[in-house]
């Protein structure tokens, strides 16, 4: 059961002599306890949290915010130029691996930075892909019933240096698996939609982790590092290999109206949102 909760948004303004940094992380609510099927007993608990100023610690949350109604036209025009993922040869059959299509789309958008950026529309379908990077001035828009699915093969995950906040590596010493959707040193990135979803197919990772078959720290589902002006809204993130949404050392990140799902049991470390060193 998912408890519907009202949307809460707060803005916090802080200024300093030499720089004005407006930094707000807004909105998200609700730690909920989600009773998985067949585990008896009903009920979930829900409480409201507010995120503030400088957060260097890490949170263990499974968060969800849900609202009523849907549908606002399939693809609103949010950037001067927009692409359909299928323009890049993607096939949404849940089997074809579409990594190149995502990479080509992101590359095309990276060329539009001086023209207001670009929008990548993901139509209904199951779009399997290896991890890919976002670019600046990009809007990723997931239609209702669009699902971006992570390949279940860790050899396709790039290895990244350990996070500075876990200098030596967290689950294992040394490099870590990258995140499924990743971005670093970006500006103005939006990931939104009509409640389409990003599915990490984490069960693959959880099993390997528990069986000690992984040689590196698992990666988050979505991670942006050293970036500013990022918005995550109106979509569902589910079954992350590890933490779900992880902004690291970013400024002006807005997270609103997201649904984050993972089983309560046997899905280790699938925190909802982990603002880190922000
Ligand atoms: C949140 O930030 C505001 C402004 O910086 C501050 O006044 C307030 O005390 C902070 N609240 C908490 C709970 O840290
Ligand atoms: C979005 O999709 C998720 C998963 O299917 C569902 O739990 C949630 O209620 C949906 N939210 C809205 C606003 O329809
Ligand atoms: C939240 O997202 C859902 C699904 O994408 C949308 O129908 C709804 O209007 C959104 N609500 C707000 C307050 O943005
Ligand atoms: C995107 O491409 C698919 C497949 O060609 C098509 O069905 C869909 O209508 C296109 N959507 C837009 C908004 O162009
Ligand atoms: C994403 O960018 C980072 C930093 O440039 C790089 O290390 C990583 O390999 C890229 N990931 C993918 C999937 O291309
Ligand atoms: C982990 O390392 C061992 C020993 O080097 C190797 O045999 C195994 O294939 C590695 N597993 C993965 C998932 O990379
Ligand atoms: C924060 O980011 C949002 C979304 O990109 C942008 O509209 C807003 O101007 C930014 N705020 C500041 C103070 O830069
Ligand atoms: C989220 O959805 C609502 C309702 O459709 C819309 O007003 C809002 O602009 C959307 N937010 C983003 C960041 O796309």
From TrEMBL:
The keyword Transferase does not apply. The chain crosses the membrane at residues 12-34. Keywords: Glycosidase, Hydrolase, Membrane, Transmembrane, Transmembrane helix. GO terms for molecular function: polygalacturonase activity. GO terms for biological process: carbohydrate metabolic process. The keyword Cell membrane does not apply. It holds the Pfam family Glyco_hydro_28. Belongs to the glycosyl hydrolase 28 family. PANTHER family: PECTATE LYASE SUPERFAMILY PROTEIN DOMAIN-CONTAINING PROTEIN, PECTIN LYASE-RELATED. This is Polygalacturonase. It comes from Brassica juncea.
């Amino acid at each position: 059961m998912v408890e519907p909760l009202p949307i809460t948004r707060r803005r916090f303004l802080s200024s300093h002599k030499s720089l004005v940094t407006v930094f707000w992380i807004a909105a998200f609510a609700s730690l909920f306890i989600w009773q998985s099927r067949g585990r008896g007993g009903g009920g979930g608990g829900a409480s409201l949290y507010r995120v503030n100023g400088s957060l260097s610690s890490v949170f263990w949350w499974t968060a969800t915010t849900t609202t009523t109604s849907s549908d606002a036209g399939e693809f609103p025009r949010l950037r001067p130029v927009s692409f359909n993922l299928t323009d890049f040869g993607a096939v949404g059959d849940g089997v074809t691996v579409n990594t190149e299509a995502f990479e080509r789309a992101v590359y095309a958008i990276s060329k539009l930075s001086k023209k207001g950026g670009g929008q990548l529309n993901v139509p209904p379908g199951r779009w399997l892909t290896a991890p890919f990077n976002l670019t600046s001035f990009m809007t990723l828009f997931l239609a209702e019933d669009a699902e971006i699915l992570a390949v279940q093969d860790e050899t396709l995950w790039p290895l990244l240096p350990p996070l500075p906040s876990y200098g030596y590596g967290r689950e294992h010493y040394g490099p870590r698996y990258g995140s499924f959707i990743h971005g670093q040193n970006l500006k103005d990135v939006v990931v939104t939609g009509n409640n389409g979803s990003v599915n990490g197919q984490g069960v693959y990772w959880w099993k390997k982790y528990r069986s000690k078959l992984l040689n590196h720290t698992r990666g988050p589902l979505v991670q942006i590092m050293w970036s500013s002006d990022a918005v995550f809204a109106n979509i569902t993130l589910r079954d992350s290999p590890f933490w779900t949404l992880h902004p690291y050392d970013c400024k002006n990140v807005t997270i609103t109206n997201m649904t984050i799902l993972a089983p309560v049991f046997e899905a280790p470390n699938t925190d909802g949102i982990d603002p880190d060193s922000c």
